Amino acid sequence: MNTGFETYQLAEEHEALREAVRALSEKEIAPHAAEVDEQERYPYEALDALVRSGFSAVHVPEEYGGQGADSVATCIVIEEVARVCASSSLIPAVNKLGTMPILLSASEDLKQQVMPAIASGEATASYALSEREAGSDAASMKTRAKRDGDNWVLNGTKCWITNGSESTWFTVMAVTDPDKGSNGISAFAVHKDDPGFVVGPKEKKLGIKGSPTVELYFEDCTIPGDRIIGDEGTGFKTALRTLDHTRPTIGAQALGIAQGALDASVEYVKDRKQFGQAVADFQGVQFMLADMAMKIEAARHMVYVSAARAERGEGNLGFISAAAKCYASDVAMEVTTDAVQLFGGAGYTRDFPVERMMRDAKITQIYEGTNQIQRMVMARSLLKG
Ligand SMILES: Cc1cc2nc3c(=O)[nH]c(=O)nc-3n(C[C@H](O)[C@H](O)[C@H](O)COP(=O)(O)OP(=O)(O)OC[C@H]3O[C@@H](n4cnc5c(N)ncnc54)[C@H](O)[C@@H]3O)c2cc1C
């Protein structure tokens, strides 16, 4: 036996981080989760708690005043918040999504303009790629950006923008050269106070109701020339590279939702009695629990491996990040559906959290690319070489 064997073992600081975020989430986020969902309101209590504890944007490097958490640590934060409230977990998750294009491709000057405020929690960020007619086929976007002297002027509409009515900074992908296809798309950092930037109405959704999903309108929206992220024409590549780094975070969100549903189920079946005994004593119920836990464990390994590979800067992240997001989100949907089943009629009511978890799980199969698109990414990677 080699008790010092560390392969497949999280570092002590990762475990300590999990403990800290779990304690914070149970104390300060869980008590508001049902109300946030019911009232479809932004989880300000969670935002306050996460900012106060330094967990709202843990991925920001120390040089910009951030925690400099690695990708696995960032996944653990998102997972633990999602275990009690999926809407709240979008605060750290979308802060990473919205700023990753800047961290990957922006000039040092632009990083200095945006990142310190995100690190401190003064500001939050969103990511604006999708349009009503350009979802899975994001490269067919119509939003335009044109030079005007030293400025860029944006026109168009983005839709489905997570936390869009709350964010301060937006990374926006727009066409700068319509003749060049995806090589004619550039990325920009837009501030909510920029002239011509307008936030549209909130979508009425099935789940993650505490996270406002909105349209954004750019009406001759004028921004300084230095707000372009990277070189002209590199925006779509940056957008896709971003997803390689953030799909593991959606996997982590899915994982957290699934773990929350399993934990609630274990408690419930031990307590609930039928036929004169706890329903946990029925083998049919035990097999369901075992399958739920087995799938969660497998998803957790895949999510952490994909995050670790992204952290190491490995090339060819497409397959593993798509696989982690796709598998963990499919698991979340299966596990939360089984959790509702294990609660019986009670599971179908809003008196217990599992129906919310089932509704929240569904989005993880859709955003940052539907799971059909993830399977396309995986298959392309398999077949290309
Ligand atoms: C709540 C929510 C939050 C979101 N947040 C953001 C955000 O912050 N920023 C952002 O930019 N976007 C965001 N999105 C957009 C999201 O990424 C898109 O909805 C998603 O990529 C799918 O695009 P679509 O809705 O246009 O579906 P469509 O592309 O119209 O797809 C419809 C169906 O066709 C399938 N399909 C499409 N093409 C193929 C294909 N080639 N092969 C097989 N099947 C295919 C899809 O899988 C799907 O089942 C969000 C969406 C939602 C609902």
From TrEMBL:
The keyword Flavoprotein applies. Residues 127-221 form the Acyl-CoA oxidase/dehydrogenase middle domain. InterPro entries: Acyl-CoA_DH_CS (IPR006089), Acyl-CoA_Oxase/DH_mid-dom (IPR006091), Acyl-CoA_Oxase/DH_mid-dom_sf (IPR046373), AcylCo_DH-like_C (IPR036250), AcylCo_DH/oxidase_C (IPR009075), AcylCoA_DH/ox_N (IPR013786), AcylCoA_DH/ox_N_sf (IPR037069), AcylCoA_DH/oxidase_NM_dom_sf (IPR009100). Residues 233-383 form the Acyl-CoA dehydrogenase/oxidase C-terminal domain. Its cofactor is FAD. GO terms for molecular function: acyl-CoA dehydrogenase activity; flavin adenine dinucleotide binding. It catalyses: a 2,3-saturated acyl-CoA + A = a 2,3-dehydroacyl-CoA + AH2. Pfam families: Acyl-CoA_dh_1, Acyl-CoA_dh_M, Acyl-CoA_dh_N. Gene3D superfamilies: Acyl-CoA dehydrogenase/oxidase, N-terminal domain, Butyryl-CoA Dehydrogenase, subunit A, domain 2, Butyryl-CoA Dehydrogenase, subunit A, domain 3. SUPFAM superfamilies: Acyl-CoA dehydrogenase C-terminal domain-like, Acyl-CoA dehydrogenase NM domain-like. Keywords: FAD, Flavoprotein, Oxidoreductase. CDD domains: SCAD_SBCAD (cd01158). Belongs to the acyl-CoA dehydrogenase family. This is Probable acyl-CoA dehydrogenase fadE25. It comes from Allosaccharopolyspora coralli. The lineage of its organism: Bacteria, Bacillati, Actinomycetota, Actinomycetes, Pseudonocardiales.
